[in-house]
Write a structure and sequence with these properties.
The protein is an alpha/beta fold. It has helices spanning 34-62, 65-79, 81-94, 98-114, 119-140, 163-167, 187-194, 206-209, 231-251, 279-284, 308-321, 357-363, 365-378, 394-414, 431-435, 437-440, 451-459, 477-492, 510-516, 528-536, and strands at residues 2-3, 5-8, 11-18, 154-158, 174-179, 199-201, 215-219, 224-227, 268-273, 290-294, 327-330, 384-388, 424-428, 446-449, 496-499, 520-524. It folds into three domains: 2-19 and 146-230, Glucose Oxidase, domain 1; 34-140, PtsI, HPr-binding domain (Enzyme I, Chain A, domain 2), CATH 1.10.274; 255-536, Phosphoenolpyruvate-binding domains (TIM Barrel). The chain is built from 20 helices and 16 strands. Bound molecules: phosphoenolpyruvate and magnesium ion (MG). It catalyses: L-histidyl-[protein] + phosphoenolpyruvate = N(pros)-phospho-L-histidyl-[protein] + pyruvate.
């Protein structure tokens, strides 16, 4: 048995699928606009070269000059006129998409290398494939490793899963997730909860302990994984699964029940989502609205930024689906453990303390403004609010508001409708904001406490690092003081205080949050019904 950290509740019994590099399935399409296709190809090439240059520098520094040479050969291939030219000719003459053209050329190169006797030359074939995969990934945002799952219902075992890996998981094929590294509030753990897939993270060496096809039991409650269990244990777990499903059934009673504490305070229980389709789960679980839409997932698993129009359609879809219930859209929070393959970001010593969220957006109006315009446009279609992540001071909030005002003025001039009184709040997830809540509450329309980050910054314990997870405690008195101060400050100015960090859905923390007067609780849709039950006992 392996012990890890319980990241998403539930039980699963299934066969192991180890995450590894994978073959790709390329679709060949007819394209009319060849110029556009060539530009797409060029962009992916440029980006791949830049990435390889960075990897080369890093490996020279960390591994050695000789070992880093391989990346130079990758770069040379991407600059090779014959290689690149052949892909272009294929796009032009065949009117085919760049990825299909690229793969045809790669396959023909590999055939040549593979037919050679020399081992060294054979290996060059693998290099070509590797480079091709990188360009392909930059063209499409496709992630290679998890797309080979054919058998239904496997347990994915991985050293780590990126948030973009997790968001791509198909529930019909994946019954659980187990990783070597990670903490309860790493974004991949949060996404597993959103998808209602049981998960155990931080097992340290699970990938070394199993092989493909092993039978495992994943216990998402106590964070354990049993490898090749005997029949009795399997039987015991089948009973546990049955009982759990029965309990889940019972909780359905709370779907349409208004959440009121014993002293009569009405409390909203909302959901956190990462993509528009997650709305289904929210409605199924009787959520009072969306308390956090993590918009960064719209930007992942693709080759370029989503346009203003695309974002507008996504936000409008969510807000309309939720009828008149509130939907809080959070502006882009990229950085930390969330990366975009096509956005070159500086290598940082401390990504969680670095160029992230609102800091990046204030610096990159070209990225920020299209999103703000999309949110504003969608605000005409329902009960939409917005908030900024990682605000650390009044000044930063006012800067963001200023850009928002510019977008409003633009739309006004263009005669496009939006809600002029759009409520604008902030995430309180940096200790400085919690300490300055009294001042900030004069300017914002609402607070939403982001405990996932607030806890890691207050206790200096990386949320994704299993080695320090023992320090990561929502009930630490320092954390509680900050939460209490934030709620009190909001209420003194007549503002609402919500919480959208994972603590809001934690059964053990809910009573204390109710006591502090928290108005809204936002969590993974799968936690809503249990949370309602707990609140109503308070
Ligand atoms: C938080 O920090 O609590 C939060 C909700 O935001 P994220 O988990 O996306 O950082
Ligand atoms: Mg956060």
């Amino acid at each position: 048995m392996k012990k890890g950290i319980s990241a998403s509740k539930g039980y699963a019994i299934g066969t192991v699928f180890i995450k590894e590099e994978n073959r790709v399935n390329v679709e060949k399409r007819y394209v009319r606009d060849i110029d556009r296709e060539e530009r797409r190809f060029q962009r992916a090439l440029d980006l791949s070269i830049k990435q390889l240059q960075r990897i080369k520098v890093k490996s020279e520094r960390e591994i050695g000059k000789d070992e880093a040479e391989v990346f130079e050969s990758h770069i040379m291939l991407l600059k090779d006129e014959e290689f690149v030219g052949t892909v272009r000719v294929k796009i032009e003459t065949g009117h085919i998409n760049a990825e299909a053209a690229l793969y045809e050329v790669i396959e023909s190169y590999m055939k040549i290398f593979n037919s050679m006797e020399d081992e060294y030359m054979k290996e060059r074939g693998i290099d070509v494939k590797d480079v091709g995969n990188r360009v392909f990934s930059n063209l499409t945002g496709w992630n290679f490793s998890l797309n080979r799952i054919k058998n239904d219902k496997v347990v994915i075992v991985a050293h780590d899963l990126t948030p973009s890996d997790t968001v791509q998981l198909d529930k019909s094929k994946v019954s659980a997730v187990v990783t070597d590294v990670g903490g309860r509030t790493s974004h991949s753990a949060i996404m597993a909860r959103t998808l209602e897939i049981p998960a155990v993270v931080g097992t340290m060496d699970m990938t070394d302990s199993v092989k493909n096809g092993d039978l495992v039991i994943v216990d998402g409650f106590d964070g354990s994984v049993i490898i090749n269990p005997d029949e009795d244990v399997v039987k015991k777990y089948r009973i546990k699964m049955k009982n759990y499903n029965r309990e889940v059934e019972k909780l359905k009673f709370f779907i349409d029940v208004e959440t009121v504490t014993k002293s009569g305070k009405k409390i909203k229980v909302l959901a956190n989502i990462g993509k528009p389709q997650d709305v289904e789960q929210v409605l199924k679980n009787g959520g009072d609205g969306i308390g956090l839409f993590r918009t960064e997932f719209l930007y992942m698993n693709r080759g370029n930024m989503p346009s203003e129009e695309e974002q507008f359609q996504a936000y409008k879809y969510v807000v309309e689906k939720m009828k008149n219930k509130p939907v809080v859209i959070r502006t882009l929070d990229i950085g930390g453990d969330k990366k975009l393959s096509y956005l070159l970001m500086p290598e940082e010593m401390n990504p969680f303390l670095g160029y992230r969220a609102i800091r990046l957006c204030l610096d990159r109006e070209d990225i920020f403004k299209p999103q703000l315009r999309a949110i504003l446009r969608a605000s005409a279609f329902g009960n939409l609010k917005m908030m900024f992540p990682m605000i650390s001071s009044v000044k930063e909030f006012l800067q963001a508001k200023n850009i928002l005002r510019q977008c409003m003025a633009e739309l006004e001039n263009e005669g496009i409708d939006f809600n002029r009184d759009l409520e604008t709040g902030i995430m309180v997830e940096i200790p400085a904001a919690a300490l300055e809540a009294e001042e900030l509450s004069k300017y914002v329309d609402f607070f939403s406490i982001g405990t996932n980050d607030l806890i890691q910054y207050t206790l200096a314990a990386d949320r994704t690092n299993e080695k320090v997870s023992y320090l990561y405690d929502p009930m630490n008195p320092a954390v509680l003081k900050l939460i209490k101060n934030t709620i009190k400050s909001a209420h003194e100015k007549g503002k609402t205080c919500a919480m959208c960090g994972e603590m809001a859905g934690d059964e053990n923390s809910i009573p204390v949050l109710v006591r502090y007067g928290l108005d809204e609780f936002s969590m993974s849709a799968s936690s809503i019904l249990k949370a309602k039950q707990v609140i109503m006992k308070c």
